[in-house]
Amino acid sequence: MGILYFDAAATAPPVGEALEAAGQAYTAYGNPSSLHGEGLSAKHLVDKAREQVASALRCKPERITFVSGGTEANNQAIFGLAKIRGKRAKKIITTDSEHPSVEEPMKALEKEGFTVVRLSTKGGVLDPDQLKAELREPVAFLSIMRANNETGAVYDLAGVRKVMTLCGTDAPLHCDGVQGFLKIENDRLTSFCDLVTLSAHKIGGLKGAGALYISEKIRNLPPYLLGGGQENGLRSGTENVPAIAAFGAAAEKAAKDKERLSYLASLREKVVGELEDSGIRLHIPPVHLPNILHISIPGVLSSWALNFLSAKGICVSAGSACSAREKKKGNRVLSAYGLPTEEIETSLRISFDISNTEEDCALLCEALRECAKLKR
Ligand code: PLP
After folding, report:
1. Is the CB of 302 under 6 A from ligand 1?
2. What one-character DSSP code corresponds to residue 1?
3. Does ligand 1 come within 6 angstroms of the Cβ of 100?
4. Could you read off the pLDDT of 105-164 as tens digits, one per residue?
5. If residue 22 lies in a helix (H) or strand (E), which one and from where to where?
6. 322 assigned to active site
7. Which atom of ligand 1 is nearest to the CA of 320?
8. Strand pairing class (173-176; 141-143)
9. Distance from Cα 137 to the centre of ligand 1, integer Å
10. Is 258 exposed, middle or buried, given 0-12, 13-18 or 19+ CB atoms closer than 10 A?
């Protein structure tokens, strides 16, 4: 039985170019900080990847700091901004549907005396008036994700920047760009965000590499990890050269592939079309990623559906992969979106990758229709 993998938002299958780049990096095994030839070869691979990631994000290479992934980049950005801005203001603005790697640092800062305001993302949209009202007081910084990992909603960050400019705030804007990176046509994230978090394994790279973009406007962001001073003193620890090289290769491939986003959107549209009259509920935010589709199957608990589909070799997620094994009650993100409990308990996230085919989608839809018959 072949596997039908529809869980790319949890982790995307690595692309061939990324595996090849990682393979070369395993051969160039030197430490990038060493001054001999082996070290320089490894450093060259890290520098090349920095250029590739920077070009995909449309920024200068020196603005990219490599880290271990999205979680570390979010922690580095949030705790760093709290340190440099916390003396001026104690208020932080974020949203009610951030990934745990933003939400948990926010909770930690609340314990340290910061006030965290979580903007509503009901229906997958931000309310500019709510933001305007919150910006009447001085704000330390803002952290708003580009696209939601569960619903696929894309938030209007250009609009956020516009409101910030209108209100005359000097607070920096950090963005968790993990799901949105290279999934939004002509995105200009660095023109309206001051810090951007990226993760390699969501774009066809390997787990264990990510990046934080830091604009030149942000000075003296303190490092989160202290040690040998790698990455310009911002992120100590010997670089994970194979994963970084793979990150660069995956970013370059995705940025060059002009058909990729429309292909992902066509797969998603095919599934939407086939499920429309199935009784399955489709939760479609007004602006959404081309690769995430969130659904609820009335009367069929997510855990039943996952088992049923898994027995057929079909991989999807119930909510996000990070929280799927936690026995937490409810779902903060889907409640924030406005789904009732019954739809949350029966919800599934289908996420597409370029390796999926139309035939895979047809098989998925057939299985989902069968699954809908399991109804209590
Ligand atoms: N932010 C978002 C929106 C994510 O979806 C994820 C991973 O699922 C992360 C951050 C964490 O990234 P990483 O797995 O690289 O730590």
Report:
1. no
2. -
3. no
4. 999 999 999 999 999 999 999 999 999 999 999 999 999 999 999 999 999 999 999 999
5. helix 16-27
6. yes
7. 8
8. parallel
9. 30
10. exposed
